[in-house]
Amino acid sequence: MGRPKGTAASSSSKKQKAKPKQRGGVDFKKYKHKVGRKLPPPKNATNTEIKSKAIVLPEQSMASERSGMAVNKRGLTLRELLQQTGHYNANVRRAALNGIKDIIVKHPAELKLHKVAIIEKLQERISDSDKVARESLYSLLQSMIIPSLKEDNAISTRSTLFLLMANILNGMTHLSLDIQLMAFRFLELVVLNFPSSFPSYAEQASRLLPWNLSIATRTCLVAFDNFIAVLSNDRIQLHDRNKLNSVLSGLGHCLSLVAKATNNNDTSNRQVRKLSARELWKSTTDEGAFAMSNLLVKLQNLVQILISSIEVSASEPCAKSSIDAPSSEALLSALHCLDLICRIFIHEAKTLRNKDLMEMYMSPLITCIPDLISNAPDDSKGYLLEAFTDAFRDCKVDSKLIFPYLDAVGEMLLHSYDYYGAWIHELPGILLHSIDKAPSVTKVVLELLLRVGQYFPTMDCENLRALIKLFGVKSPSGTVELGPFVNLSRDCQELAISCLYYFPSLLPDIIESLASCCLSDVLEPFILFRVVEILQSIYKAGHLQITEQLSFLSLLMARFKVHPGNLFAPEDPSKVANWDTFKLLNRLILTSLSEMGDGSLVLELMWNNLSNAIAQKPLMHNMNGLFRIIVTLDAGTSKLLNEDVIKLIAGYLVDASLDLSKTIEFGFQPDKTRLFQYFIKPCIIMFEKNDKGTSVPDVTFEEKQKLKSAFEQLKTKALQLNCWDRSELEGLLSAT
Which positions fall inside the TEX10-like TPR repeats domain (predicted)? Predict the structure, then answer.
């Protein structure tokens, strides 16, 4: 067989394809390595291998070691269980805590030997993310560890509590609300069992706070911010009342420590006596004010939060048929906390040097008291009212707190019948002291007294008898010493006399002093007229005897000091003319008398007062006023025409003529006719009303001649003044 032709030639003739030219330079040669193949080390690599020989010791069997050790039912020792409390698995941590409890129950000596180690390890679980683990820890501390700590001395316990408190306060600031609430339960547990050793942590944690706060106060100050933050959470307030109760319970115990420390003057406060004067001054200037301001700010914030909580709890009975146990407990706990805060404020108010600071922070607290008491249950109102009443009694008149106290009393008058008597009893004393020390308080007290009278018109005024001193006091000699009423401002004076309308039982003891005030030159005419109007209204209402009112009016008319201006000699220029005031008073008195009934009967009742006043020969203007009273009531009375009265009338006419002659000497040029009529008119009316032809046995011919002579003198002076027509004077003379 022959070889096919052309085969070799064709194969040899084939030319290999030319490879494509590589791009790039030779400096970047590409290497291909197989996957998984270890690369050789670089030529300049450093050998870092370290070779050593191990020391192997023989170990005993763990089973043989456990034979003499305390283990739980799972065969784990205390050390192993403590290590497992930090496990990442919550179930392991729960089992470890239960195992520790099991070991302590079976082997109590383990707790005594390893108490510090147990607490140091378990205190980390206060902020555990698992609720069951936290509850297990709380149960373990409450039932076993805390009772064992109480048996030790205070020195050995202090360092242990320091670690525990550090983690408790750390838990209070945790982001998880449940962990925060659980931390408050741990805090309450420590406060209840170690009230004396508890402050050791605060001494370290609150170094910025000064020494002059008590130890317990500084301790609770550290936790107050956390209480405020948690209680401000709306979820606690509205939904979970059990959690709220837990927080309020802890807050109550902390506040109890503060209240107890402030009342008992603990060791920290007693150290003040050991300091030098220089150290005492240095520490009480800036640091004391700073620390107390911090404390009061926190308490003030707590008050606002607690009141909101009370309002929520108190509103539930209105929406539901009955209140549940958690809500009731929350309400009582909040009220208890507020009571403690009030006690702290009251105590600090008595001892605090910086009064302005104290008053600034106590004022909002007092303002909230009425709403708090109105929403409180009946069994709690008594305690709050008693505390408020004690604080109100202790408040000074010149304190800024007196205004909030008075406002609170005004709001609670209608709702607190058991205590309003005690409050009212304090008002007169506050009023009298405020006139000199705090005039701005005077008006507020008078307004409150006016409201008291309006609210309780039938009230026994025995508690208000001190008000008598406002108008005056009768001295042993029988004279009346004016009270501060005449020096009050006009609005306060008007309020004071308006109060008399509602306290008429005080008038028999006040009316004489009130008349003396009305006769004073210091009193303004407006107040004088207002007094007459108020007493007339009291008489019309049936609360003032007619004899007392008649005596008051006749006294005003007989003793009012008239300063008619230029009618007086120039040696008295300092006296301001008040003749117009007297004429208005005269008119007001006559109007009041005419409203009392039959004129002859009224005159009969007040005749003794009038005759005694006339017999004392008062000044001409007062005598004119007394005659006008007689003319207004009964000008025809036979009591006028007797020897004594005729003499008095004649003397009055002579005095009138003399006063008219003074107008010529001092250049007085008034309406002379009206002036003459003013003085002579009452006498004319009295004589016209009496029968001139009737023989009056009590009046002799000589007395009539004296009267005629008096009219002759008066006519002469009138002619000199040209103040009456001659024919009118002749007719007047013939009428006598």
Answer: 422-540
